[in-house]
Design brief:
This protein is mostly helical. Helix content is 81%, strand content 0%.
């Protein structure tokens, strides 16, 4: 795979993982009653923001682990 394709795969997978994780965190926060769009910075608003941040970070880490396992499988397939 060329360098450009590797970089494109890295960027797109990071973005998809982050966005999917952030949306999952937002959904969990909403289910718990923590609205990030409440007026002011109350406790429920801050907890919702934390859920979105943690979800985005976890989604990013999952995307990176997926990429690493994919690269490891490709490298193992190249060996005789």
């Amino acid at each position: 795979m060329s360098t450009a394709k590797k970089l494109l795969l890295e960027g797109v997978s990071d973005a998809v993982g982050f966005i999917a994780g952030a949306l999952a965190g937002y959904g969990l926060g909403q289910a718990a009653g923590w609205n990030i769009f409440d007026a002011g910075y109350g406790a429920t608003s801050l907890l919702g923001i934390v859920c979105v941040g943690l979800g985005g970070g976890l989604g990013l880490q999952l995307a990176r682990r997926w990429r690493a396992s994919r690269a490891q499988r490709a490298q193992a397939a190249e060996r005789p």
